[in-house]
Amino acid sequence: MKICKALLSLLMTCSIISSGVAMSASAADSDTYNDITYSTESKEEDQLTVPEQYHKVGSPSVEPTSQADTVAAASVTTQTPYNVFDIYDAHQKYVKLHSGDKSMMYKKTEGIDVSYAQGKIDWKTVKASGIDYAIIRAGYGNANKYPNQVDTWFKYNIEEAQKAGVDVGIYWYSYAFDTEAARCEAESCCQVIKDYNITYPVYFDIEEERHKQLSTAQVSSIIDTFCSTVESRGYCAGIYSFSSLLNTKIYQQVLDKYAVWVAHWDVAAPGYSYDYGMWQYNAKGRVNGISTEVDLDHCYINYPYLISPDTYKPDGRETDSSEKLYPLSMNKGVAKGIDVSVWQGKIEWDKVKASGIDYAVVRAGYGNDASQTDKYFKANIEGAEKAGLNCGVYWYSYATSAEDAVREAEACYEVIKGHKFGYPVYYAVEDASFASLSNQQITEIINAFCSVLEKKGYYVGVKSYANFLNTRIDPSVYSKYDVWVAHYGVSKPAFNKNFNMWQFTNEGKVNGIKGYVNCNYAYLDFPKVMKNAHINGF
Length: 538
Known about the structure:
The chain has 538 residues and is α/β, with parallel strands linked by helices. It contains 17 helices and 18 strands.
């Protein structure tokens, strides 16, 4: 059974609490907060449906979506106060305390999220219609300072929902734009809900337009402050927002610590595929007992059990596997490949080909001098081609400026010229040294390298981890160059733009290679593109 970090974190937290929390989502009021008038509702503005065709030659209909990126996470740590804590031991302790409970971890349930906007709800009728749980808005902003910001229907909704046998969670709509305001909002929320038994996480609803204008570090700090404050009061905390904000404005370390509720409507699967427990899939649902439209949600994690295992009553829908609960995973593309370097040592390429591998992306070298050619580059290229595999190459970057990147591009060209490549020439921008550079510097470095090689007749792309691609590179890069995204242990990479290659594991086992090797899916018939366009040496 696979248990994600966020779920392990929840297990650790929830094993010591008796009252729960809920996942949050929903809309703001037209009331005034700090003398600013807000609109009546905030909805998903950046819909991530099937993306537009990619790059100069087009791409398949890929749904980029929905974990912790090893290198990206390491590089971000130096910039932020967040540290990924080790929760494995805590999980093992939990399992020992509750032997046999693994079969209860997952459960698909149907829910709604409500506020004053739904008016008076007939909760018995809602329950009878098949709704298992409701995420109820407790309020918004700093209710300690502005008491009228408690949701006007909160008391009625939570009491009547629980009387009807509906499990409840909480969401608090945020107008916090700094950590002190977030702390006040958390304290307000806890004060409002303190007399109730909450069986789903307490969620921080962050979706204001102004939040999009803040930096990733600022948004992450605001969320971490609210959620950690809520957890210190004995609740399980979570984050709610639309998929595009979750993808681009929150550090992975923060997402890993709390439950995630993603909003993305009218799509086959949310455009986010880090770990999440709940999906708000419809903003215009209809449910018996409610006279207005209402948000509809799927939940995949058995929060009532995890939060209150001693009082939980099974109903037969529980399972120890999440496999068949979540939306369908991304397809395996048109070709399967590996990427290799000196670290794989001597490779038996005939065995690799016979094992079902279609292509190989070979490291050509690193740094800004042709003398830094990968020790096995020549052997790997010749061996792969002789075995009938198409090849691409990547150059590992240590550049700190655009000038460095130009030198790296020239060095790369000296190594690869004279070869034909059926797959792109990728610029690997994933070293921890990039953490000290600004987004503008990183973008300039990528543009400098890629433009040099493109002018020399190569099809060029950028390679990095999903979180880094989402948060550290200007999106303008992706309209010019292809993308190779690395994201392990997920059903879909959580990159919110188009891509044509996915490195889905760094623990692959392939005949002919000793030890682990990175494995990839390609979503474009690259060899055909190169030959038809007469590029990459063709």
